[in-house]
Amino acid sequence: MFITFEGIEGSGKSTQLRRVAERIPDAVVTKEPGGTPLADRIRAVLLDSSSQMDPVAEVLLFAASRRENTLKVIRPALDRGGIVLCDRYTDATLAYQGFGRLLNLDQLRALNAWATNSLVPDLTLLFDLPEQTGLTRARSRNADASQDEGRFEAEDLRFHQRVREGYLTLAGAEPSRFALIDAVGDVDDVYARVEAVLAARLPRYFP
Ligand code: TYD
Predict the structure, then answer these.
(1) Which of 8, 15, 85, 154 has its Cα between 20 and 30 A from that of 24?
(2) Are strands 84-87 and 28-31 parallel, antiparallel or unpaired?
(3) Distance (Å) of CA 38 to CA 41, 61, 108, 119
(4) Is the CB of 138 within 6 Å of ligand 1?
(5) By three-state DSSP, how is residue 28 classified?
(6) Minimal CA–CA distance to 2: which of 134, 116, 141?
(7) Global pTM?
(8) Which of 5-9, 136-140, 175-179 has the lowest mean pLDDT?
(9) Tens of pLDDT along 148-181?
(10) Is ligand 1 within 6 A of the CB of residue 14?
(11) Positive or negative, the Cα torsion across 13, 149, 78, 121?
């Protein structure tokens, strides 16, 4: 089973992923961009706020990172019958580069399919909250971080509004794959919502 975690900056998805992983000790946990040594290097280039790049060059780097992670980490784990938890995946490209940067969605879908050999998550948890709330959380966290990963957080509010709306549009188009989770509230409240979704899908781990 392949489960992805998506949402705007500061939606709390990574914290929730860690809590889910504690309940599924044999799960393979990964993230995008990143997940392999090469993909981690691509991540550093993509997120450093001093990097300046053309939007198409940007999306090709995300795709390169995704292909490495898919072929070397995700696909092998799924082939072994494992559960994979991935922090962001193909939907992030549609939301950020498609709805956010306004690149062509059909081209991005084709790129995603090419990069992943058409691997699609079984379940996508979308953590939704107002973009202003998320950005405030994310920027204060980034100010404390040792590594500069602030390039997307530096985008304006309109960009993040489009990303959020994009995610909601994607979720509306595929209601059986997406579970929409209200990410407003404290970590425990949100986690209770996650548990309710996972109880239906993974009763062995969430009895
Ligand atoms: P992430 O590590 O999830 O950052 P955060 O925990 O702060 O949300 O993601 C890094 C950034 O990369 C995030 O701002 C979203 C962006 N991104 C894209 O624009 N496109 C993509 O395909 C992916 C995977 C991420």
Answers:
(1) 8
(2) parallel
(3) 5, 11, 22, 20
(4) yes
(5) strand
(6) 116
(7) 0.96
(8) 136-140
(9) 888 999 899 999 999 999 999 999 999 999 999 9
(10) yes
(11) positive
